Amino acid sequence: MARYVVSDDGELEEDLPFTSDTSEYEFPELDSAERARYSELRTVIKGIEERPADVLTLKKGEIEKVYESQLNSAQSAAVFALTGPVLVIAGAGSGKTRTIVYRTAYMLQKGIKPESVLLLTFTRRAAGEMTKRVNQLIGSELADRITAGTFHSFANIQLRKYGRFIGIMPNFTICDTVDSADMIDLIKNTLEIKKSGKTMPKKGTIAEIISRSRNHAKPIAEVIDGYYPKYTEFADAIKQIAEEYEKYKAERNMLDYDDLLEKFLNLLETSPEVLEKIQARYEYVMVDEYQDTNIFQGKIADLIAGKSRNIMVVGDDSQSIYAFRGANFENILRFPQKWEDARLIKLFRNYRSERTLLDYTNEIIKNFYVSYEKALVSNIERVGERPCVKRFLAAEDEGEFVASEIEKLLENGIKPEEIAVLYRSSFHANFVQASLLKRGIDFAVYGGIKFVERRHIKDVLSYAKVIQNPKDSVALNRIFKLVPGIGAATAAKIAESFAEKGAIAIQTHAKKKYYEELLRLCDMLEAASNDEFKITKVLEIIIEFYKPILEELEDDSDDRLKDFPTLIQLASKYSRLENFLTDFALDPPDSKLSSSKIPADAEENRNKVVLSTIHSAKGLEWDTVFVISLNEGSFPSEKSISRIDDLEEERRLFYVACSRAKSRLFLTYPQIKLMYGKLNSTALPSRFLAEISNSYYDIL
User: What is the DSSP letter of 410?
Assistant: First the structure.
């Protein structure tokens, strides 16, 4: 496969053929602290991997024989290991969920009280699917009595129950990421921040910096220096905003996502009586996707299991890809360090991919600086096709090829929804989208604006939040800005006054033109606050009030109004407004109502090719996968190649992308980058391609 460079006179010249050679790439040099940390991690892993495997002495009856007939030996070992700390390393496609489901069912069939079981997952959907499957397996609804849900939802329940021990009132409001950014914007605009020639980061970026600082337990200045260097001069200002942000939330009884975990951990660490009660109830703790836990989540699980010591964590260190959300991949690596008598069980039999694809992904694993040793073997008899690597002159050519190959696959009977195009960043798919459109091939893009983030849904929920917590100044600010004649500055002032004094605060605006509208708003809030009303009735009152406002605001109001029946249908399942708003904040629904695993518009996407970022694709699988834009600087991203931790996360992201494929894997990259419409740059293939011997793939 030829490579090309741009000569001095602007012409293209053929360069060396593509080979598995990494000599042209720069790799980060580890400083002394990084070297020591990685050395320590290797030692921890080596220690548990070299430890003789404990032979589980189990008197096997009919129940055990049934389970063994439906599981492989490693899965059976995990299912039967009910006591003590257990670390399960579950490779991609190795039946991780099946193992957790069968273990939960086995626990219940062995007489363990369901109320004593705590199953922590990363989505409410995952928890619901698991408990449903457990009930099907045991032929009863016993699993409905276990506590299964996300860390955030569990923390929310416990804080509403015991939060008073640390000064948190039970009617607190949960702020989503949009609320947090709006709150930070309000604070930023009220502080006297020294002006400079540079533009201060936007509210969303400031929110990210503050969240990253908290999740990684690092000072804001250090976070900015490492990840947002162009904002170094604003470090003190952002620190000041962060301090005011904490005060602002506390005064208004509001918690953000990070607070739920941080405050719950604080509760467990500072209230022995609360910890004792929670430990006494939950004697068996299981954590799914443990590689994605952050510092708070890891400590929470350890504390709850501290008395019984019956904790099983399940995950794959090779699939830890959420550091930007605060995930700490060291949690899974250091588990044997925290629990020195932990048992290690590896699920290595893959039920997803054909052998040649597994051979390739196993080679990716070998290139990690540190990881648990794993070589997945396929449970599929067919050997299959080797991955294909193809180089293109430009991104347009790459897009044409991908669309052309998809067309062939469709003609050969592959269903559209069994084909996926995966990429590091959304803009990488632009040319693929154009080429698919040209051929009339329908596609669905995973991601986009969630249902709860749509402007009209957010507005209606803000009215509901004020009814639940009249001190929620973020929601107040939003609904006052909807009043005709009120600008951002005035809305902020009215919101602050209303949060402090209630509806009487609007009397100071009696001479203003918008006063009558304020009265209408207050009348609506009072009417909808009737405790005897069902939530659906409350929403109907709000929506009826909001409709004319929406019609003035949006040209497509007719289409947006169609979302409100969905909102009411969701609300109909709840008896309390607080629970409805909490679930909406913690686990927002997808764009359409669906029980499918497909992330968005599930029913409409069934006959469409999938285009998705790799982060959105985790946990999913397809017959054929295209991983595109595999250029150095694009994947891994240019920002990630100077730090060892960042580069390792990019390599794990590449592993996740490649391990989604069941039968075919195409790896593509354009040789020439188009910059501002000109051919002025050449691009190396991704180091992740170059690191692997060409004996594991075919070059097209």
Answer: H
By C-alpha distance, which of 506, 669, 696 is closest to 1? 669
- pLDDT tens-digit map of 161-180: 999 999 999 988 888 888 88
Residue 611's nearest CA partner among 597, 591, 623, 625 is 625
Nearest-angstrom CA–CA distance, 676 and 674:
6
Residue 406's nearest CA partner among 608, 268, 631 is 608
User: Which residues are CB-neighbours of 655 under 8 A, at least 6 positions away?
Assistant: 92, 318, 319, 361, 364, 365
The candidate with the shortest Cα–Cα distance to 561, out of 549, 541, 547, 542, is 547
Q: At which residue do the structure tokens 């460079």 appear? A: 5
- Which amino acid is residue 21, in one-letter code? D
Identify whether the C-beta of residue 528 lies closer than 8 Å to the C-beta of residue 541.
yes
CB 222 within 8 A of CB 214: no
CA distances from 638 to 5, 17, 683 (A): 20, 24, 12
Candidates 391, 397, 393, 399; CA nearest to 433 is 399
* pLDDT for residue 595 is more than 80: no
Per-residue pLDDT tens over the stretch 229-275: 888 989 999 999 999 999 989 988 889 999 999 999 999 999 999 99
Q: How far apart (Å, rounded) are the C-alpha atoms in residues 548 and 46?
A: 66
Contact between residue 496 and residue 473 where contact means Cβ atoms under 8 Å apart: yes
- The CA distance from 288 to 655, in Å, is 19
Q: pLDDT tier at 565 (50, 70, 90 boundaries)?
A: confident
Residue carrying the six token digits 């604006």:
449
Residue with tokens 């004697």, as numbered in its chain: 283
Amino acid at 689: L
The answer for 440, left when phi > 0, alpha when psi is -120 to 50, beta otherwise, is left
Report which of 136, 87, 137, 135 is spatially closest to residue 114, judged by C-alpha positions.
135
- The answer to whether 312 touches 86, Cβ cutoff 8 Å, is yes
DSSP state of 685: B
CA distances from 175 to 172, 250, 254, 469, 542 (A): 10, 12, 7, 12, 20
Of residues 462, 465, 417, the one with CA closest to residue 597 = 417
Beta bridge partners of 314: 88
- Summary mean pLDDT of the chain: 86
Q: Who contacts 118 (Cβ-Cβ below 8 Å, separation ≥6)?
A: 146, 147, 148, 154, 282, 284, 285, 286, 304
Beta bridge pairs of residue 173? 254
Whether the Cβ atoms of residue 402 and residue 626 lie closer than 8 Å to each other = yes
Dihedral sign for Cα atoms in the order 402, 405, 410, 414: negative
688 touches 677 (CB < 8 A): no
- How buried is residue 32: exposed, middle or buried, by Cβ count under 10 Å (0-12/13-18/19+)? exposed
Tell me the pLDDT tens digit for each residue of 67-104.
889 999 999 999 999 999 999 999 999 999 999 999 99
* Tokens coding 242: 């962060």
Bridge partner list, 668 = 390
What angle (nearest 5°) sits at the alpha carbon of residue 10, between those of residues 6 and 16? 20
Task: Provide the residue type at 642 as one letter.
Answer: S
Q: At what angle do helices 73-80 and 96-109 cross, to 10 degrees?
A: 40
User: In the block, which residue shows the tokens 């694709």?
Assistant: 617
Torsion of CA 160, 163, 167, 172, to 10 degrees: -20
Question: Are 402 and 666 in contact, with CB atoms under 8 Å apart?
Answer: yes
**pLDDT in the model for residue 3:** 41
Give the integer Cα–Cα distance in Å for 398 and 631. 12
Rounded distance between C-alpha atoms, residue 212 and residue 325, angstroms: 7
Q: What span, in angstroms and rounded, lies between the C-alpha atoms of 659 and 357?
A: 8
Q: Which residues pair with 271 in a beta bridge?
A: none
pLDDT > 80? residue 2: no
